[in-house]
Amino acid sequence: MTNRVSITKVASGDVEGAVRKAVELTGGFDQLIGSGSRGLIKPNQCKPSPRHSGCMTDGDVVEAVTRLVLECEPASVVIGDGAIAGYDFAGFSTQESFDSSGVTDVAHRLGVELRNLNTDAFEEVTVPNSLVMDTVRIARTALESDVIISIPVLKTHIRTHATLALKNMKGVMPGAEKRKSHRLGLDMAIVDLCAVVRPHYAVIDATVGMEGLWQAPQDSVDMGLIVAGSDALYVDVVGAALMGIDPSQIMHFHYLGEREGKRVELDAVEMVGERLEDHRKVFTTGFDVFQSRYPEVSIVQGESACSGCTNELVSAITYMKQAGYGDQMTGLTVVIGNVDDAGTKDRVVALGKCAADLPGASSYVPGCPPKEAEMVRAIAEVCGADPDAVMATMAEARKKLWDASSDLLER
Ligand code: SF4
Fold it and tell me: Which residue lies with its CA nearest to atom 4 of ligand 1?
């Protein structure tokens, strides 16, 4: 694993050429894949979507990576993923995702097995030095692979700001496990997951990216790039920066960097190929869109604000509204990160240790990140809402979701 990350340009539609060059610039696959290797190629096949919309890894990129892997003559290769819900149903199945991205055709063309990881056998694995998940269920295909190549698409995410090669590994968690990771705190769950199944190489399909809340085609962003490297953390740092997102604001980068003794900053990366500055575009994040839907709430973010706090805030505001307290949030100010002064406002909730010293806050929620329930209670109390009613609404909504699919989830 090195800190070298390449960016290459897709010239005249030659995706394979760009992938080949990107991988070569980082030293190729020869050291990584031997004749006895069992390889898992893990694209992001989250939900059936139109090709080239930026929602899923496209078949052209999967094909190029798979060809390079096959050239190393490994013992076996599987292309595998499981759709985002963790289980399959009509209109939202893994197979439909494979079909719509072109990956099914790729697998047939190259004679490689395509595997739905939502229906794979799984094993419960202990997470070493866990943050939030002591154990996690993982698709056996991933556990039995010697080499995992994560191929995400360049995309924003409402809770984690960016969803790239590390978060892409969620696809190896079957059924309810995916939801558990959201409930426990998505950023930290990703770090726990990567303690068990850290990808050995990452290639970002940045041919077309996706911003906002993934409305196609209006949220598709043409980029025409491939990003690659052997350390998925550094590849993700570059991916985030290409979207105009400060990598330090992504909590799972932080935690993983701390764990592995790495700085999650661009100057810690050895960049090769295209210059990042020549291609950076500022994507609208999912949280930006969320925020615009709640103009009654003022969210002030300091420089140190990260996805750990914004992630939990999404739930708190959503369930306040669902509990019928939307109007009561008018005039509420929520502060995240190191803000010196939130101005003279009546109802200010300061979130997390970064905002601990905010002067004049009506309420402070400790933690890094703060606990979801404590955040909900603080916001409800400051708004004069009944915290128990909001918590009950949240529990009810989650139970409904659970009941609707429990037969499928209890695998
Ligand atoms: S307190 Fe919140 S904003 Fe600060 S680092 Fe922790 S999670 Fe991020």
Answer: 354
Taken in order 81, 197, 146, 69, the sign of the CA dihedral is positive
Same domain, 273 and 298: no
| Predicted pLDDT at 406 | 56
**353 CB within 6 A, ligand 1:** yes
Residue 10, classed as helix, strand or coil, is coil
337, part of any domain = yes
321 and 217 share a domain?
no
3-state helix, strand, coil in the chain (%, to 5): 40, 20, 40
**162 CA → ligand 1 middle, Å:** 16
Candidates 56, 43, 264; CA nearest to 170 is 43
Query: How many angstroms is it from 195 CA to the middle of ligand 1?
Result: 21
Q: Is 285 inside any structural domain?
A: no
Cβ atoms of 166 and 236 within 8 Å: the answer is yes
| pLDDT tens, residue by residue, 290-319 | 999 999 999 999 988 988 898 889 989 999
Q: Got the DSSP string for 336-374?
A: ESS-S---S-SEEEEESGGGTT-TT-SEEE-SSSPPHHH
Read off the pTM: 0.90
Domain end residue (candidates: 231, 249, 278): 278
Angle at which helices 103-110 and 94-101 cross, to 10°: 80
What's the chain's average pLDDT? 93
Segment 43-72 mean pLDDT: 96
Boundary-marking domain end, from 254, 278, 302? 278
Q: What is the pLDDT of residues 177-202, one digit of tens each?
A: 887 777 788 899 999 999 999 999 99
283: confidence class by pLDDT, cuts 50, 70, 90: very high
- What is the average pLDDT across 4-14? 98
Distance 192 CA to ligand 1 centre (A): 18
Least Cα distance to 268 among 227, 237, 305 occurs for: 237
For ligand 1, whether the C-beta of 365 sits within 6 Å is no
- State which residues form the domain around 39: 4-278
CB 25 within 8 A of CB 253: no
